[in-house]
Specification:
The structure holds two protein chains of two kinds. By secondary structure, chain A is an alpha/beta fold. Chain A is 18% helix and 35% strand. The model of chain A has no long low-confidence stretch (mean pLDDT 97). Classes of the chains: A alpha/beta, B alpha+beta.
Chain lengths: 171, 283
């Protein structure tokens, strides 16, 4: 099945998806890697620079080009998600409904509440085509790869690799 | 010279070498599974975009690793190290690259890919008046799957195969398969890993000139592709594009095996500096 979805995702959006489905995702997504996850989980929910309810987190540290005060995403494929397994239960507990990454994660924490979308690792130049603009960047003190980039995406082609019903495509 | 090194770095991160691309195309043709085809098609598209727009194919532009063969009669010997560091700084801004050098104690990113011990430079002093240099941008996801096994001589080559296959299984989709596996056997712990990393400079599809080693490379490749891990770990016929083995003599008590796992984006570029200052860059 191929569907178009827009962020924020509802629980209904999530429960309808099955491992193997193709999703074209539009709207806002937020990048986070190891350090950003630690910071997200160390702050009270109301102090986060994004609303985690229905949010989609992208495991990605982009290559960016700065022109004046604005940033442009040059290449932005996914990073290895397994490093974030230790924070998974925490961020899904905040209401996050989708994670985009590569290589897979523990399937159990997704059950009944969220999905894991895979994009092709290394295909950063292609992924950047789906990023229409950088809406904001937070926590640049963590460094460019680890900062929290709020990206506006359009029809980002993803595969549901772990669904909310316990199915996973990973071998 | 600095400008030429910047160009070599740019070439390495924006253009995937032809031998790698042709192996990926063959892998795409072999796959029937829809998800495997989705991933390989995305890879081939990303390669085209990188080439056409001269932008990094993968956002992880890696830890820049240089292998320098320095001719001892080259007039540029004293300038090379400084030129590599400066070129790394410039390339980070101009290509651009992702800043990937982080202080291990404070976690602070240096912002320009330079810092203590990086870019990594391996030196080899050779006869002659030319300097040849290879640049290998090494991604973190695949490097995290690299490993060392200090086997006993009794485990021998069967042990090597078992270690590599188990490691590839354990890593699944994490290193961005289809991978290239580079294996160094012998020499000691450090040297086996160095041999392995250097083996990534060999062309994909080319066997070791020693037929006995070539045979083991072929057998391991077959065994790994029978695992079914597939592109990005989501199933398929191609888990590895190639296996490269390099050897050195070993201590009688040791059987060191250094395994360097490389993602499908096996990036590289070469550069030669003639004694008159002329520079050639190729892949």
């Amino acid at each position: 099945m191929a569907v178009k979805l827009r962020t924020p995702l509802s629980i209904e959006d999530v429960l309808r998806l099955k491992a193997g489905d193709v999703v074209y995702l539009s709207g806002e997504i937020v990048t986070a890697r190891d350090s950003a996850h630690r910071r997200i989980l160390s702050l009270p929910k109301e102090e986060l620079p994004f609303n985690p309810e229905g949010a989609v987190i992208y495991h990605c540290g982009p290559v960016v080009r700065k022109t004046g005060e604005s940033y442009e995403v040059v290449s932005a494929g996914p990073t290895t998600s397994a490093r974030m397994n230790r924070y998974l239960d925490g961020v899904l507990g905040l209401g996050v409904r989708g994670i985009i990454g590569k290589g897979g994660m523990k399937a159990e924490p997704f059950r009944g509440r969220a999905v894991y979308f895979a994009f092709t690792g290394g295909a950063g130049s292609l992924a950047a085509k789906s990023v229409k603009r950088v809406k904001a960047v937070h926590w640049l003190d963590l460094g460019i790869p680890e900062a929290l980039w709020v990206l506006k995406v359009e029809d980002f082609p993803l595969i549901v690799a772990i669904d909310a019903h316990g199915s996973s495509l990973y071998r | 010279m600095i400008g030429a090194i910047v160009e070599a770095i740019r070439l390495a991160v924006t253009r995937i070498p032809d031998d790698v691309v042709s192996a990926l195309r063959k892998a795409y043709e072999r796959e029937e599974n829809g998800v495997a085809r989705f991933n390989l098609e995305n890879i081939l598209k990303a390669i085209e975009i990188g080439k056409a727009e001269a932008i990094p194919v993968c956002q992880d532009t890696g830890t820049l690793t240089f292998f320098v063969k320095a001719g001892m009669d080259s007039p540029f010997l004293g300038e090379i190290e400084g030129a590599i560091v400066e070129a790394t700084r410039l390339a980070t801004k101009e290509v651009p690259l992702r800043p990937n050098a982080v202080d291990v104690l404070t976690g602070k990113n240096s912002g320009d890919n330079t810092g203590r011990g990086v870019p990594v430079i391996h030196w080899e002093l050779v006869e002659g008046d030319e300097i040849e240099m290879a640049v290998l941008p090494k991604g973190g996801g695949s490097e995290n799957c690299s490993a060392l096994a200090m086997l006993t001589p009794g485990e021998g080559w069967e042990g090597v195969k078992r270690f590599v296959v188990e490691r590839v299984k354990a890593c699944g989709g994490k290193p961005c398969p289809p991978v290239i596996l580079a294996i160094g056997v012998g020499g000691g712990a450090d040297y086996s890993l160095l041999l392995a990393k250097k083996a990534l400079l060999r062309r994909v599809g080319e066997r070791n000139p020693d037929e006995r080693i070539a045979e083991i490379e072929g057998e391991l490749l077959e065994e790994i592709n029978a695992l079914g891990i597939g592109p990005m770990g989501m199933g398929g016929r191609t888990t590895a594009l190639d296996v490269k083995i390099e050897v050195a003599h070993r201590h009688p008590a040791s059987f060191p095996v250094g395994l360097v796992v490389q993602c499908w984006a096996n990036r590289r570029a070469f550069l030669r500096i003639k004694p008159d200052g002329r520079v050639e860059v190729w892949q």
